[in-house]
Amino acid sequence: MEPLSITTDTSIVLDKQTNPSLYYAVAPVINNKTGVRSYGYDYTLQGVSCYIRTFLGELVNSSSELDLELGTNYNVKAITWEKLTLSGYIPLQTVNSIQGLNFSYTDNALTHGLNIYRVKIELVNGTIIYSETTTVVLCQ
Hints:
By secondary structure, the protein is an all-beta fold. The chain has strands at residues 23-24, 29-30, 33-34, 41-42, 52-60, 63-70, 76-85, 88-95, 102-107, 113-123, 128-130, 134-138. Strands 7, 8, 10, 11 and 12 form a five-stranded antiparallel beta sheet that branches. The chain has a three-stranded antiparallel beta sheet with strand order 5-6-9, with no helix packed on it. A two-stranded antiparallel ribbon has the order 1-4. The radius of gyration is 19 Å and the shape is elongated. The N and C termini lie far apart (58 Å).
């Protein structure tokens, strides 16, 4: 490994044409001294966790409170809240103005038993990323 860039930001976008390596690591620089470097990871094996930090559902009274925290909104075009029905996943709401990293949705139309949700993230290039599911149980 060799130094590539120093930035004060917590993220960086590297062009594949000029940076063909699959392995990258990070290290802090404090007072011109390099700290402990992270492990070197193949970024192509990282899954969707860079986009989805957390996706949680909680029963509040008789509603599902869904909370999504993104790791980044870079190139995110839209976020769609989806619910699993007998016909498959149906869209509940789409957010087209992606500002910030935290999003929430309230589903007031719960069914008795399991209510299963996921988030669909559409990137500017057309790529679709799905979150893991979260389940809210209504037992009344």
